[in-house]
Amino acid sequence: MRHVLDLIDDRPDEGVFRVHRDVFRDPAIFELEMARFFERGWVFVGHESQIPLPHDFITVRIGRSPVIISRDGQGQLHALNNSCRHKGSVVCHHTSGNRRAHLCPYHGWSYGSDGRNILIKDKAEGDYASAFDQDNHDLQAVAEFAQYRGFMFASLSSDVPPLHAHLGDVRTLIDLAVDQAPEGLELVPGVVHYRFEANWKMQLENTIDAYHFASTHPSYLRLQERRASMPQRADAPQTIWQSANKPQEMMGAFGFPQGHAMVWTTTPVENHPLYPQRDALQSRVGPVRTQWMMRTRQLNVFPNLQIASSAAIQMRVIQPVSVDRTEITSYCLAPVGESAPQRRQRLRQYEDFFNPSGLATPDDTVIFEDCQRGMASGAIEWQQGHARGMQRRIFGPDEHAQELGIQPLTSVSGTFEMSDETVFHALYRHWRGGMA
Ligand code: FES
Ligand SMILES: [Fe+2]
């Protein structure tokens, strides 16, 4: 069997970058990924707007560990291991809610919304030795917990860089989403869960894979063409993606340290939902950032967050379950305080493309499962899917990155048809470093 470091064949001087298929299909690799990236690194755990009120909570998993993200009575946020200090039971079984206290269903210990133990059932009658009282009985806080502009991240290990260092220039790209409205973004209530029988990195790759668009989503494109030729209701979804594969459009990509990456595409700005507000936006954030806000941008924040900004903003959270099973949670992000008609239009846009009920996601998830099945045999070792754009990719920032004031490890830009694949290299270079 190959050593894990030999699963990424990275020879920039020779124009070679190859990923071995065991990266997607070996259960031992999956176990190591869980330990290295999901249980020893920063993981996205939620958006602050999911728990706006005192005692609001959500439950999530960090790798394989259940966690409660809770706002206490003073408004302070906490990330708590959702495991009773008594005998380990999961304490909170709800995905979200509002609770002053969480009661363990096994022996009835109880914890406040700040994680503090507030009841040990029949404590007085328990004949505990005084040594027991020396122990802390509170829900154990997750080792690291921090937020950037409403996006909450946590790490089960304290052996991580500060969050701002982990995110690096990705903060600028998150700003491009958040600053679209003066009061920032919020999650629209409602959430979509789905799962597919394939490796989690299929989703991580697919979101920044421009190459698959026309071949995987022909029915979506045909529908867009039909819509363009027919009279439309005022609140019908805009066809912002329709021309995303025309030769005059440009695409580009940035790869960052820590495995983050972004693909951007120019689209006709007149169709963009921000277009009517462009003057106000320009005076608030300047012409360059206004232009970038009206480009489609697919951002991966390694390992489990994706922010897809096009006609609507989708936030997707990736939860690996096993080497060939993945759960996705999907949310619609929207500017705080937008008008009811704008919100309605946004939701129609969001439903149109994303999620199992949309016109694109089912194509993608079926393909992920096809890939997983196609790779089942060890007969074929190497993928050939990380090579497009190699001649155009440069190390460091290009003029587009300079415009944004960011310092990616790699940059590339060209026609949409170039459909670069070097954008995946940052992911696998970080992966290789983390698995070593
Ligand atoms: S395991 Fe929670 S009270 Fe016993
Ligand atoms: Fe797709």
Walk me through what this model shows.
There is one protein chain. It is built from 14 helices and 22 strands. It has 436 residues and is an alpha+beta fold. The chain has 2 domains: 44-148, Rieske [2Fe-2S] iron-sulphur domain (Rieske Iron-sulfur Protein), CATH 2.102.10.10; 163-435, Alpha-Beta Complex (Naphthalene 1,2-dioxygenase Alpha Subunit, Chain A, domain 1), CATH 3.90.380.10. The strands form 5 sheets. Strands 13, 14, 15, 16, 17, 18, 19, 20, 21 and 22 form a 10-stranded antiparallel beta sheet that branches. Helix 9 (278-285) packs across helix 10. The two termini are 16 Å apart. Bound molecules: FE2/S2 (inorganic) cluster (FES) and fe (ii) ion.
List keywords for this structure.
436 residues; binds FE2/S2 (inorganic) cluster; binds fe (ii) ion; 2 domains; globular; Naphthalene 1,2-dioxygenase Alpha Subunit, Chain A, domain 1; 22 strands; 14 helices; alpha+beta; Rieske Iron-sulfur Protein; 27% helix
